[in-house]
Amino acid sequence: MLFPSTRVATDPDRLRDYASSTEVRPRCASVLVVLAISGSLIAQQPAWQAPPKLVVGIVVDQMRVDFLYRYWDNFGEGGFKRLVKEGSFQRDAHYDYAPTHTGPGHASIYTGTTPMHHGIVANDMFVRTTGEGLYCVQDDRMTGVGGTGVKGQRSPFNLLSTTLADELERRTDGRSKTIGVAMKDRSSILPIGRTGDAAYWFFEGTDGHFATSSWYLKELPEWVVDFNAQDLATKYLSNSWDLLLPRERYHQALPDDNPYEEPLAGSLKATLPLDVKAMYEAAGRSTVLLRFIPASNTFTTDFALAALKAEGMGKDAVTDLLAVSYGAPDEIGHEMGPRAIETEDMYLRLDLDLARLFTALDQQVGKGEYTVFLTADHAAVDVPAYLRDLKGSAGYVDAPELVKTVEKALIERFGPGKWVRKRVKEQLFLNDSLILANKLDRSMVQRVAADILLQQPFIADALTASDLMRTTYPTGIRNSLQRGFMPQRSGDVCYVLLPSYLTSWPGQAPKGTDHGSPWNYDTHVPVLFMGKGIRPGEIVRRTSITDIVPTITMIVGCALPDAAVGEPVPEVLR
Ligand SMILES: [Zn+2]
Questions:
Q1: What are phi and psi for residue 322, nearest 5 degrees?
Q2: Which residues fall inside 5 Å of ion ligand 1, going by CB?
Q3: How do residues 303-359 score in pLDDT, each as one tens digit?
Q4: Residue positions annotated with a catalytic role
Q5: Packing angle between helix 12-20 and helix 29-44, nearest 10 degrees?
Q6: Distance between CA 243 and CA 19 in Å, rounded?
Q7: Are 304 and 357 in contact (CB under 8 A)?
Q8: Rounded to the nearest whole angstrom, what is the distance from the C-alpha of residue 545 to the centroid of ligand 1?
Q9: Could you please report the per-residue DSSP string of 481-547?
């Protein structure tokens, strides 16, 4: 196709297409001269000197890559399908560490490294010196800005590496606009890091709106105040949640009413439609419920679009970052599991929200002017009870019972006392003062605890902190444990349950799901890129989620985050 000469001369991207096309035959000498001059100018200008105006990072909380395969025929053209068709799809991308939880996941994506270096080893950490819990973004010195209560006592203080946001700010001497948006505080804060402009999250309960903490701002910008004044949370809680498509179009092997799903708070059955308004009233009009319905994703998108517009993101040559995280897939996934019709319906609705986001980006920033990536902070296992009923190897491990077994063995060996101080997920913290008082070698006590764990039939592996500090494990689940381990913050013994086994407690119904393991069902997530600087295609070799940000830094031309260990994926780059 031949462009008018004026257009050719002024539009460098088109010029490049024009110049490289073998079918094009310029017809007059003046066009040739213009081409030669512009061509040489372009040749001197590397692509990273003309970076995208905006990077949009999207994290879907608890998304398995096979959801793309299962739900494909029910997706529209503008959301997930657009990402796959126009973009680059890494089909074998994994978390290469455990524990695979939300805080560690968001931190790892945006720092390009793993908990061993960025320090977010759990959602809820345990501090040996105080004997108290520490939520991963807890910071009691902070207060809410625009919201009240403990939700305001949040900051990225516990994060020990820079993120993509920090590096963009450094690259542009602070001129980048870097904003995080999520229902969950940790999913908004950890991507934006310490020097990003602002992270906004949902102050649930009676506030029911987006706000931030004193780490980032002194007062809410006018546009956030205006957004909150619309009281959209209440509006979304006044509807019902019905199926988007006719029931027969969903990919369901089970009836909607089945024994593997936990009903949402305020409802008796895990079936659709749900009378959300009645549940909201029954819960004393607490907006917590919004987290658990698909409208949560719409609400998050509304806020992201408000930020885009009001902050003028992607409007100039300085690269901005909008980090959006969708929390409802995780909340619904935990209750219902990956097979539920509720889960599929939520993804079909999320697909519409993504399409709305991309259309707005096309209009406000311009098609081809921004770069998007989409991934998940972890995936999840099928409901173990369901797998067991299908004759699969799966089950539940009673955590208090397991701790008791370890205690008993330690008492028999070392004498009376409460030897296990705390269990955090699949990690045990031992009683340091008791070890000291008995003049014992800590690594020996750790060894005895790990050995008794290894005698249990449902344990795949158990490593001591001493093992993890002194031995290098190059591959497999031991390597995953090592990448997720930090001596000051992790437990004395780290163990892994057999595939498809979940930690449980007495009286817990075998419904819904969880995540956290180094097994594929938790580590295998989608990684998709689309837009400026991206070469479309599918990549089937194994990649790591820590490669995402190093790849982005090659496009935007900024430094790697401090502790990034991932590598750019060359197939993604144009
Ligand atoms: Zn999560």
A1: -115, 115
A2: 61, 102, 330, 377
A3: 999 999 999 999 999 999 999 999 999 999 999 999 999 999 999 999 999 999 999
A4: 102
A5: 110
A6: 51
A7: yes
A8: 14
A9: HHHT--TTTS-SEEEEEPTTEEEE-TT--S-S----SSSHHHHEEEEEEEETTBPPEEE-S-EEGGG
